[in-house]
Records
---
Amino acid sequence: MAPTVGWLHHRLAGILQQTLRPAAVRLELWDGGSPYTGPEPPIGTLVVKDARTLRGLIANPHLQFGECYMFGTLEVRGQLESVLEAISRLSLAPSWGERISMHLPAPGNTLTRARRNVHHHYDLGNDFYTSWLDEQLVYTCAYFEDPHQSLEEAQAAKMDLVCRKLRLQPGETVVEAGCGWGALALHMARAYGARVKAFNVSHEQITYARARAAREGLTSQVEFVEDDYRSVRGEYDVFVSVGMLEHVGLTHYGSLAAVMSRALRRANGRGLLHFIGRDIRRPLNAWIRRRIFPGGYPPTLAEVATRVLAPARMSILDVENLRLHYARTLAHWGRRFAVIEEQVRTRYSEEFRRAWELYLAGSEAAFATGSLQLFQVVFAPAEAVPHSWTRAEIYNGAKADDDWYAATR
Amino acid sequence: MAPTVGWLHHRLAGILQQTLRPAAVRLELWDGGSPYTGPEPPIGTLVVKDARTLRGLIANPHLQFGECYMFGTLEVRGQLESVLEAISRLSLAPSWGERISMHLPAPGNTLTRARRNVHHHYDLGNDFYTSWLDEQLVYTCAYFEDPHQSLEEAQAAKMDLVCRKLRLQPGETVVEAGCGWGALALHMARAYGARVKAFNVSHEQITYARARAAREGLTSQVEFVEDDYRSVRGEYDVFVSVGMLEHVGLTHYGSLAAVMSRALRRANGRGLLHFIGRDIRRPLNAWIRRRIFPGGYPPTLAEVATRVLAPARMSILDVENLRLHYARTLAHWGRRFAVIEEQVRTRYSEEFRRAWELYLAGSEAAFATGSLQLFQVVFAPAEAVPHSWTRAEIYNGAKADDDWYAATR
């Protein structure tokens, strides 16, 4: 028999329910009671299974929602993403706690810590990711040319979009910072004839990427280096980094700027940063930082402009916000992850499965509501002549004319 | 007979020539002497006609280059834009004086001062601008779909680009802050069926715009208001401002944010800011501020993001840097201005003509070298669902599908 709910906890539940009411989310306590008085029917129900969970949700919701969900003392009835989306809309502005924490010193991502952080997430086992990512193992926001594209098509379209935005030409040299399982580097070599040097500190990912390059006969064009982006040496035509900046951490933006500045040819170089960002400064959700991405921080565009691009003397040429594409990508991942629910529970644990389920659904909600953004930023050294006259050629398939500027002056 | 050049001024000329040598610009003094030892032939020559000009160019080049050119004690032999471009490349980084001046309090653009600043430049007489601008009197960066378009075509293309980026629909309401002679407001009404309220503090411009609206039978769709943007009231679907932000001044970005925040419908609104900007913080050239644009300041993208868009709770959706389009626009203006040289001299003065010649050529050089940028920023309220899935429809002429998001979730 469930313990009864005392006076104090009834009061607390009332307060929490009041906060949730604008989202039309119902609260239910461990004795089955509910103080819900909002619109009928509610879009979903949070089932709080004990007093400790209730107190946690009030005292530290950003951390405890995830913790309690993960360990099963918080259940969600109704569609998880919709409930999270509704709750996310309630808290589009940072809380006071979050504002204060922005001014506290954060642990820097030293080389050792960076490796450990990456290992935490990306070395879970290649077959874990193989079982729910697209066939090319692209673990970043896809680009849906039309909303009905499959995830496979949309990831290929994303890689093409990146190459087209960069006006990548045959024979050009590329350095990639944070290459995942190597899909983009291989795509640049295969489809665009580029020569790519790709860095990643995840041993599992680099091993996989190298095997793939060998299998495709691309080892002469693509070199996978198991090392930190800060070890990049040499000069390249193109710098690209997709989904790494979120892991770099504000305190290391200066190092990234130094790498970009020395790695990119000043006269004709250009680069692209693809990263999860924010409209306003705000720390990453506390639970995501604890369980999913230690050391993670999604920057604002202004932070990237002033702390990375300006110190590297880069000029911003193009910015696109693809947040809805990430919401859709995450919806695909969430559906695929649900299919392998049983295997994940068996191989890892129920807590692990619930943590990942929440992480995927919560991220989808955050991108759908605009709590998170996805920025693609194209830049070039301040003194370089931009490589194109308009963006039309990205979309209409026309060939870029390298000499347009000289020819038409 | 010209006075001879003494030992001190020979020394000073040597120092100045050393600075100019990397630009392959030759210095010639009032006695015909030249300390030039750079590559032959040089791309152009600065002819310094007296000792005061020489000292001015060394002590305060940012101001005195313009002053001396304007008053004729500094001549440029060779193509003016090319010489200015070469000199501009020498000083892509801000000088110490400029860095310091960024931290000095600047006079704020109060309502009175804003009117006076605008009057200084924009009320020179409509026939002055009519004689060298395009036929629609668009005095902002054009958009050349291909580099061979005429200025008229490119200004029409720019207005279309703005409307397409905004996904402007028939019947929607627009508020425009700083409408010049009304071309964009009338275009939005005529070609897109929008209802526009357009603000401008220049009496001459508003009078002209009203007459044009009447002539075209668009007075029921477009209202021209002779008032400051801070007087905007009511709610609109679209906020647009092309070429005004440069005149607003950093200290008033908060007021602009407040206007945008209250003027834009939160659920489905969106806006576009088109402005001259910088890669790094740097004041506007001192001479341009004195003679051409009092109170002008070209902000960085980060300044606009943190001081205008974030306080207005707007999310950045799209940024395009069109600096080369402005270089080309200015080249068109410069050629047209040269044709009416004689009339300008007669109606105004030789100093006025030289000031404008230098302003147009110097601005062309600044955009060509990347000392100035031109940013178009599309944004929407943080909680609004973006109006489009990709940017392709801007370029391929396809119709935007308003219901794409709902339909495909």
Note: Chain A has 19 helices and ten strands.
---
Amino acid sequence: MKSTRGDESLIIVMAGNATPEDVAQVIERLESIGAEAHVSEGKHRTVIGAVGDRNAIQQLPWEAFSGVERAVPVLKPFKFVSRDFQVEDTVVDVGGVLVGGGNFAPIAGPCAVESRDQLFASAEAVAKAGATILRGDAFKPRTSPYSFQGLAEKGLELLAEARAEFGMPFVAEAVDPRDVELVSSYADLIRVGTRNMANFTLLSELGKQDKPVMLKRGLTATIEEWLNAAEYIYKEGNHDVIMCERGIRTFETSTRNTLDISAVPVVKELSHLPIIVDPSHSGGRRSLVPALTRTAVAAGADGFMVDVHPAPETALVDGPQAILPSEFADLMIQVQAMLAVMESFR
Amino acid sequence: MKSTRGDESLIIVMAGNATPEDVAQVIERLESIGAEAHVSEGKHRTVIGAVGDRNAIQQLPWEAFSGVERAVPVLKPFKFVSRDFQVEDTVVDVGGVLVGGGNFAPIAGPCAVESRDQLFASAEAVAKAGATILRGDAFKPRTSPYSFQGLAEKGLELLAEARAEFGMPFVAEAVDPRDVELVSSYADLIRVGTRNMANFTLLSELGKQDKPVMLKRGLTATIEEWLNAAEYIYKEGNHDVIMCERGIRTFETSTRNTLDISAVPVVKELSHLPIIVDPSHSGGRRSLVPALTRTAVAAGADGFMVDVHPAPETALVDGPQAILPSEFADLMIQVQAMLAVMESFR
Amino acid sequence: MKSTRGDESLIIVMAGNATPEDVAQVIERLESIGAEAHVSEGKHRTVIGAVGDRNAIQQLPWEAFSGVERAVPVLKPFKFVSRDFQVEDTVVDVGGVLVGGGNFAPIAGPCAVESRDQLFASAEAVAKAGATILRGDAFKPRTSPYSFQGLAEKGLELLAEARAEFGMPFVAEAVDPRDVELVSSYADLIRVGTRNMANFTLLSELGKQDKPVMLKRGLTATIEEWLNAAEYIYKEGNHDVIMCERGIRTFETSTRNTLDISAVPVVKELSHLPIIVDPSHSGGRRSLVPALTRTAVAAGADGFMVDVHPAPETALVDGPQAILPSEFADLMIQVQAMLAVMESFR
Amino acid sequence: MKSTRGDESLIIVMAGNATPEDVAQVIERLESIGAEAHVSEGKHRTVIGAVGDRNAIQQLPWEAFSGVERAVPVLKPFKFVSRDFQVEDTVVDVGGVLVGGGNFAPIAGPCAVESRDQLFASAEAVAKAGATILRGDAFKPRTSPYSFQGLAEKGLELLAEARAEFGMPFVAEAVDPRDVELVSSYADLIRVGTRNMANFTLLSELGKQDKPVMLKRGLTATIEEWLNAAEYIYKEGNHDVIMCERGIRTFETSTRNTLDISAVPVVKELSHLPIIVDPSHSGGRRSLVPALTRTAVAAGADGFMVDVHPAPETALVDGPQAILPSEFADLMIQVQAMLAVMESFR
């Protein structure tokens, strides 16, 4: 055993045909930024551990150096959102409803606000069945330019009315950095949609607001990239971020997306932020919602969010995945029973 | 509304620039195999519905015909394993232990049989904690040719001894069509590993045995391809097939594979076969096993299969994902509690 | 053969257990929007072809209707960007340089503008070697909030200076709808980055500008979604869109992304828009750039775009994939030779 | 800079909360197998470089040890097939036709042998146009059990007749370890299909034959796993392996698979084995074959293999991707012209 001191935040593996000059250049560059090199010379490969400031080291283009085969990060690129930084669970206050740290939030409502009648029918039903936060969108990013794009501010007004009527805070999506202030002035929780998870200008804008943010996972984002996106919001000063797993894109076509249920325990290991699951958008089909919602509870999620529509076949957005109010009531009974069992395991 | 009669098993969409001759050629070919064509002529596209024997129609290379843009199957290619063919759940008898149709099977043991001591320590522990079927492999297909490949027949003998000692049937993998008879002469349930799901010569061989088969999903197989593989076994006369979801390959790297938990309700919709979940190989990490096992129960699976090793750090195969006997005992308490709740929802 | 008339734009497959009422409800709904139903009744399934206005039909939530198994679109959702709409290749004028319809554009320069010296060294070299458009970014969306984010307007000023000095138009990225006007006031071609392909507010903004747009494919976008994104820009009135394939996310980790070279002939079949390839961001490694650039030419692309940096190991962004000016000069010799051969095949 | 000696073949990253005992246990285990530990202790993490026999070190289940976060291999798991082991290109002799090291092989013929007429029509055409190796299969693994499975030995006899008649060696697939001897007694080159890339019993059997092997990439295999599969064959004593890229499974549905053209230069960097491309099975459509074949040449492949069928619409297997004899003749003209240009770059 040979021993050295210092946090290696990056391992630089030199190529088999790297020259002594190549190795020296890497070491010099490390030393020029105040870092230290732990060099292990072998017959086949030289391996260099870089010790020093993580950000300074990790942002250099090591694989562009002559003779470098690859650079392997040892420490994760995100800081504030990691369990290393904060051990206790973050609890987010959404208009008086707590999420995280043992507080479970059923979130339900229509995918898009279409009319006062549709919204109020859905809101009344989900409130009665036990949902604690209302969902409903006023701005909808759509794959096809020919699809319904939302009611805009009119939708937010209706959501605020529903909040007053049924006594539950609401979450709504912001899709444009220019609308953040507007959405924030109405909603209790601002959602970042899957297509915008890597819209860094939107994330920065949200980091400067004082409303909590729900950050949906990008369709194709790794868990590490998703936590990096949360870091964007967090480091701007907004620490109230709720992660939302909603399925990723894979080769499987029998579901709209593939719900990555493992993301729940993985995020809980890596981060102190609460995480919920969206079974509606991951499965994409009404018949799958109950089973997938139960898996969210079983995985240890801090809540779930489902589309509930009084008449799914008339929905302007995502009807196939919306469940009926009566189905939601049945689902809540199952969720409550499973939560009680989960509670008993603590 | 215009109406015609007959099951359209395939829709043939002609290209925008298809000629009348192209359309005629497709219709003729359909009629030559005794099928009927429902033709809808539009300004932009002609669409042809093919009515007749599904297999005869679907196996023709329609997209090779001049002027054909694509062919969309309406009916699934598998028959016997579908819910259309049999509405009631299949119940499989594994050496006296029932699986499916409300019978839940906890399956546990070491990934590979390494020695009598290792196997018996694991088997004793899992039997005591409530597992009803023992797992343990004698043949291991490994990615690297330099890894441990299993004890072969010696391993099967040890498994048979453990069965006698602890009174539980066992499941073991067959990797070579030439070994099917051998494995079948010892094991109560023969497993097809993920790498062999599309090894059709192995599947056909298994279809001719009289022992039940556990069919793991291919790392990259769609649910439809997986059910097709089950059809291979079924149509040879072996109707005792248990599906096993074990994670698929995606871009996510924080877990070994991505557990596709939605596959449980989807397979239950499409097929009458029982389905279980392998939380060990999907997550690839010991810490994820409890949460993922709970999701299997919550999704409605008919069982689960986990790696349990008395000393994972000495394991010759897949140590990182094996849980300790004590962890398995804790897990079984959770599973029993959740099963009771699930039962109450029926 | 049975025959009906009218373009079926959607096929609705009813479930095996659908009732006559379910079928009637679908037909009624179709008729209520002025569409016609071609109904084919079989023993196992009823299949309904929907004839009428494509947008009206396709935007209804058919899979939310009771008894519907799935709805399969026959006609693509995009219109204006399709070959059906316009047969001849679109030719885009980028500050006097033509792209598409037989006009091939080599685009090169640094990934990000870092300084006057760095930009000018790169621009001079690529101009001399035969590049016709300069690349260089002033705004950089980065996965980690701790990475260099670009020089903003100062960067655009330097690019404009380089244009004047070396006589080549330039392309730069816009990442925020609020910056579109600013970027548009400097650049000859505005780029939409891969993370923003589905940022529909940004796309709409760009559709209202009079500068051409280069639309990079989303990391996880299907070709159909990518063409839908182009339709967003096109239908706002901006018809000068250049598609840019830059690799998709797959399970393979030995390259940064997987270059989907088949996208070149596929887009050319489906659309009249020009398409180029970015071999730098797809491969992610300097050593792969020459081979991947050659495949772009061989596939029939209308150009390519590469990162060229005078000293990649000092690059603040994406150094590992930048090639040296001398390597670019060698590459251009190969590209010219291959273009001549490709020309001979016409 | 601190310096130690010895090839680190694995880096073990301890978790943030690992105890000194955890670290000691890892070091002891390393020393127990004769390896040395390079330990770097930091405030956040301890990182251990393992120096010693690569196989002994890499096969231990490090991530099963208490306190270990992850283990990162530095050296690749394959040895004999790597460029580190042999710098010069391997040249494979296929019945007198050389492949690799500058020798380019056009391989063509029907996907499956269906009849003497079909085979001979195809063979005559491809021989005349310049193909040097004939393809044609006698055993076909099919996704659906209801599809045509091949003519078996009768097919091999016809291929041998065609070889005699047209003077070209042929390649055929072996799908069952029990058939290897049979196929080997007829064919000049034995193919392992994509579904069998990880069928290790088949690979071992092939490693003991004296005929060269063409190893198709698994639908979902990483390049590293694919080279591991080649290592299986190589280490049994058969050094004549030709790699064949044929597309991987991704989310994109407009092509049958996604041709990973980057695999050509990547395999050439990592290994000395020849690599060819199959444009027929990757694209899955006749219209894409010419463009994809040209990209293979441009990427630097050592050959390509295409399906050619005299009447694709009557093909029993994979008709949609087969090109006509006349199209193959045109394609060969393009290939020859591109090869001449590629030659000029050396």
Note: The CA atoms of residues 41 and 47 of chain A lie 7 Å apart.
